[in-house]
Specification:
Low-confidence stretches: 1-11
Structural class: mainly alpha
Oligomer: single chain
Radius of gyration: 22 Å
Number of helices: 18
Largest sheet: 2 strands, antiparallel
Mean pLDDT: 91
Number of strands: 2
Distance between the termini: 51 Å
Strand content: under 5%
Length: about 450
């Protein structure tokens, strides 16, 4: 049978290599959440039993969700607004892509605040000012959050400018090249830190907690936490995957790529656990402290677990790891809006990137100020928390749900088949289409509704 090669895809901007596809898309999913949020959630939820539950939900929800966004993006080979409009058959569906871009811009804005903290602590680590007594560590973080300290605002903007520099270089020379450097570096740093962590006294207790399941600890709350972790760890609902898929060549096997990207994301999350749990257990610290884990708990761990010279090296590598993890994610968040602006208006890619950078910088500054200045926010919460709740509780689940419904119920089945088989190149996946439709039409939407209801406190 002759391959059906769509003419509209022949001259589009694409990632240069299949490795670039994997690293760029995996980089968008792998971020700070993998390094601190997953271990924190795992620590709060019983360790190994939570991981097994998370793995199962990721296969059922994460893979179809990612495939749906890949299908929508590569089908049009355009920005997320145009992609959703074409997939839905009506202009109104393009608002899903706009919502994804806005959601990502808001996330980038407040995410850059935490990324700026990582930059600050990397500087402190290099200058040997992270390691100290518990009181000194607490004072350092307290000074960072002081109302008189505007360094977090500055560092938030600096981090967004780092992201901007990569975006303006384009898809191949910017996003793909940076991802090819940063993702392997991130994994290499994780391996080094795991090696250091697992050689500590009592490290086996942390390893056992991570891999020996205790199913008696599982309850409905932990199930919903695993649902949310599986959904959010893969960047579903942000239009990021859709945007990156528009840069896929027609011969890219999106089913295989999805399994590889999901596997990398899971691997990095578990590796982060292997890095943090043995070290924490070696000094009798439970790693379930949320964001403060990496800025207060871990410096205490470094201080007590290692000789000073070793702690200096470990802390520097750790905060370098966090900085790289943050940057791989911010690149993808920035690209979504940049692509829409540059493709849907008369502005160039560079001008579109500047528009995104200015907007995200304003969100970042507002978020940073609201964390140190009481009363800066709405509904009794800081602007940082407002943006976090709006995106995590409403925009992300809604974007993921609509993507699945569009692919499952609205897009012509032959177009879905074209994407899943890469226009007839990989016919072996054709028998899986029926399973995909069951998941996309029924199972995954029900799971996302459950996530939404748990987030707003209904269940």
């Amino acid at each position: 049978m002759e391959e059906k090669i769509p003419i509209k895809n022949k001259n589009k901007v694409t990632f240069k290599s299949k490795l670039g596809v994997i690293f760029a898309t995996a980089g968008s999913a792998v971020g700070l959440g993998n390094i601190w949020h997953f271990p924190t959630t795992c620590g709060q939820s019983g360790g190994a039993a939570f991981i097994l539950l998370y793995l199962g939900i990721t296969l059922v929800l994460g893979v179809p969700g990612m495939l749906s966004e890949f299908i929508i993006g590569r089908n049009s080979a355009k920005n997320s607004f145009a992609a959703y409009k074409e997939a839905g058959g009506k202009k109104a569906w393009g608002t899903v892509g706009i919502m994804g871009a806005l959601c990502s811009a808001l996330i980038l804005g407040f995410y850059s605040v935490i990324a700026g903290w990582c930059l600050y602590y990397l500087y402190l680590a290099i200058t040997d000012n992270v390691i100290g007594t518990s009181e000194q560590i607490t004072t350092t973080f307290g000074n960072l959050m002081s109302p008189d300290n505007y360094v977090p605002c500055l560092l938030s903007v600096v981090f967004i400018l780092f992201t901007h520099f990569i975006i303006v270089r384009g898809v191949r020379k910017g996003i793909e090249l940076a991802s090819k450097i940063m993702v392997p570096t991130l994994i290499f740093l994780l391996i080094l830190l795991i090696g250091a962590s697992c050689t500590l006294d009592n490290a086996w207790s942390g390893i056992e907690f991570l891999f020996k399941p205790d199913f008696s600890q599982l309850d409905s709350h932990i199930v919903f936490m695993a649902l949310g972790e599986a959904f959010f760890s893969l960047s579903l609902g942000t239009a990021c995957l859709c945007t990156y898929a528009s840069y896929f060549k027609d011969e890219v096997n999106i089913v295989k790529s999805t399994t590889q990207i999901v596997s990398i994301d899971i691997l990095v999350a578990i590796m982060a656990g292997l890095m943090i749990f043995p070290a924490a257990f070696s000094v009798n610290v439970q790693p379930d402290a949320g964001p403060s884990l990496v800025f207060m708990t871990m410096p205490n761990v470094f201080n007590h677990a290692f000789p000073h010279a070793v702690a200096y090296i470990i802390s520097t590598l750790f905060y370098l790891l966090l900085t790289i993890a943050a940057l791989t994610s911010t690149i993808s968040m920035h690209e979504i809006g940049t692509a829409i602006i540059s493709q849907e208006t008369k502005l160039s890619r560079t001008q579109g990137a500047y528009c995104m950078t200015v907007f995200c910088a304003l969100v970042g500054i507002l978020s940073a100020l609201s964390m140190s200045h009481e009363g800066w926010g709405l509904f009794g919460m800081s602007f940082f928390d407002n943006f976090d709740k709006l995106t995590a509780n409403i925009m992300l689940p809604l974007g993921g749900l609509l993507s699945l419904l569009i692919v499952g119920w609205i897009m012509p089945k032959e177009k879905v088949m074209d994407q899943l088989t890469s226009y007839g190149r990989f016919k072996a996946f054709a028998p899986l289409v029926s399973l995909f439709y069951v998941l996309a039409r029924f199972i995954c939407p029900i799971l996302i509704v459950c996530i939404f209801m748990s987030k707003i406190g209904v269940i």
